[in-house]
Design brief:
The complex is a heterodimer of chains A (113) and B (110). Chain A is built from no helices and 11 strands. Chain A is mostly beta strands. In chain A, strands 2, 4, 5, 6, 9, 10 and 11 form a 7-stranded mixed beta sheet that branches. The radius of gyration of chain A is 13 Å and the shape is globular. The mean pLDDT of chain A is 94. Chain B contains no helices and 11 strands. The relative contact order of chain B is 0.34. Helix content of chain B is 0%, strand content 59%. The N and C termini of chain B lie far apart (41 Å). Chain B has 110 residues and is mainly beta. In chain B, strands 2, 4, 5, 9, 10 and 11 form a 6-stranded mixed beta sheet that branches. In chain B, a hairpin with a 6-residue loop joins strand 4 and strand 5. The chains are: A mainly beta (113), B mainly beta (110).
Chain lengths: 113, 110
């Protein structure tokens, strides 16, 4: 059974640019959540998607956005990148909403220079 | 506001030296407590879910327990391959997001 797949694994961008990250959840999983991980803040919740709708959003600026497609694949976008956006971005998929187990992908390491 | 505190921040053990990691939480109605293991440069790997006080779960050398205020991850006779960061997360009635602690970095030396 394939796990959660995130692409790309590594990305280097310049300040002011925008970036799109992709997440393919485990087959059959309908809930996708995104987290940002930094050494100082740990894992912080960005947003959750279920049935193509954003259901929950963390405390991040509007530069961070996302969407979910009908096949449950999800993308997140960060516009006008700042140096502080450098982080490991993790996607997690769950079978349902609520607190069934969430399985994480390997993450996308974003470096903003 | 939900809070999750893990201690210690770092722990160094000799191979075979058993110990426990702590996860203290304050939530507005616990819906579930999760333990993950994370290796450097990788995503968190799911270990356990605990839903109610008194619940215990085991997997190989790991055993997770839950009370109304904290959870413990007991590591029995650890091996060097158990070295990783262990993350605790809680879900509460305030929403579906997981609220993570900062983790405990475990190093097991031969």
């Amino acid at each position: 059974k394939a796990g959660v797949t995130q692409t790309p694994r590594y990305l280097i961008k310049t300040r002011g640019q925008q970036v799109t990250l992709s997440c393919s959840p485990i087959s059959g999983h309908r809930s996708v959540s995104w987290y940002q991980q930094t050494p100082g803040q740990g894992l912080q919740f960005l947003f959750e998607y279920f049935s193509e709708t954003q259901r929950n959003k963390g405390n991040f600026p509007g530069r961070f956005s996302g969407r979910q497609f009908s096949n449950s694949r999800s993308e997140m976008n960060v516009s006008t990148l700042e140096l502080g956006d450098s982080a490991l971005y993790l996607c997690a998929s769950s079978l349902h909403r609520g607190l069934t187990e969430a399985f994480f992908g390997q993450g996308t390491r974003l470096t903003v220079v | 506001e939900d809070q999750v505190t893990q201690s210690p921040e770092a722990l160094r053990l000799q191979e075979g030296e058993s110990s426990s990691l702590n996860c203290s939480y304050t939530v507005s109605g616990l819906r579930g407590l999760f333990w993950y293991r994370q290796d450097p440069g990788k995503g968190p790997e799911f270990l356990f879910t605990l839903y109610s006080a008194g619940e215990e779960k085991e997997k190989e050398r790991l055993k997770a327990t839950l009370t109304k205020k904290e959870s413990f991850l007991h590591i029995t006779a650890p091996k060097p391959e158990d070295s990783a960061t262990y993350l605790c997360a809680v879900g509460s009635n305030s929403g579906y997001a997981l609220n993570f602690g900062k983790g405990t970095s475990l190093l097991v030396t031969p």
